[in-house]
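Issue: ligand-bound run for magnesium ion - logging full I/O for the record.

Environment: standard queue, default settings, no custom constraints.

Inputs:
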Amino acid sequence: MDLIKIAANFRIEGTIDRVEPMGEGFINDTFIIYFPGSSVPNYLMQRKNKRIFTNVPAMMENIQKVCSHIRKKVIEKNGDPMREAMTIVPAIDAKLYYQDEEGEYWAVCVFISDTEAYQSAKTPELAYQGGKGIGMFQKMVSDMNEPLTDILPGFHNIRYRFNQWDNVLAKDPVGRKAKLTQEISWIESRRAEMLNFWILVENGEIPTRVTHNDTKINNILFDLNGEVLCVIDLDTVLNSTCLNDFGDAMRSYTNTGEEDDENLDAVSCDLAIFEGFTKGYLSETIGFLNEKELEYLAFSAKYITYEQVLRFLMDYIDGDNYYKIKNPEHNYQRTLAQYKLLTSMEVQFPQMCRIVKDVEEKLRSA
Ligand code: GN1
Ligand code: MG
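Outputs:
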């Protein structure tokens, strides 16, 4: 595959010198485009996973709508739109993607340099900045009127996930179910609790808004002073509940270990990080979240972590068709680590609720 040739299909301003692979995303393949003599990346190019994103053109439309809305907001507040918003680079034919001869979809955006991305939130201050970043993102898109296409139906919808789950378990395609009785019971014993939350979204008590849906810490760029700059990886921008963004962030930020840690003792939920993120997040969002959203904020951390346990375990039972894996037991390992995190959240749930209440009261009285 000639990456330079593929990159040449985009409206890139400059001569492409080399294209190098970057990172280890679970879903897409990412590359960096360099100009001659340049040691810093100039553009970022991705091959989008078309098995997961079955409608890449609609996905790119969604991303573009969100990017241009954010760009307007950044300009309004005298920010730098080239650094505080993502800039999609269209193909020569003006499409937001290029489809190669093999039918693969590619997309390019401007690389924002002099930034830092983190794999974990080591300090409450960093978590505060991350929370502010997600809060700012949600606030900026809270008045977006243009509809987004639902390119991932049921993405953080647990009713939909239970449907997938029931189907995969009924099929048990690679015969892994028998040895997973205990792990399966982790999912089943919490089914009603999780569905009861989702019913509030279905009946509108918890509203849907424009949300990011993949708020892991490594999807935020910080500037070199540690302040939040820009939210990236917009593949999953959708109409969903803000709580999914908060919950997914807490799943990744508060984990004292790795998402797939082999040492389960290293995995737990760090409340100081939870508090830092909550302070930053609510400082931006308290003005528009309703009472139900605030009431369920802490719960959303458990909800998304639970969903992740289910998704990893389901992929394992299904024979590893969704997530990229590094070894045959990788999805199982991820399941155990995420379950450990979930139980740590469950034990500390009363404190998590207390923290949300305290932060909320402080902000209201300020
Ligand atoms: C995937 O692409 P990446 O690694 O940012 C996944 C998320 C999961 C995450 C688990 C489209 O995100 O939902 O939470 O892996 N994205 C999709 O780390 O399924
Ligand atoms: Mg990502």
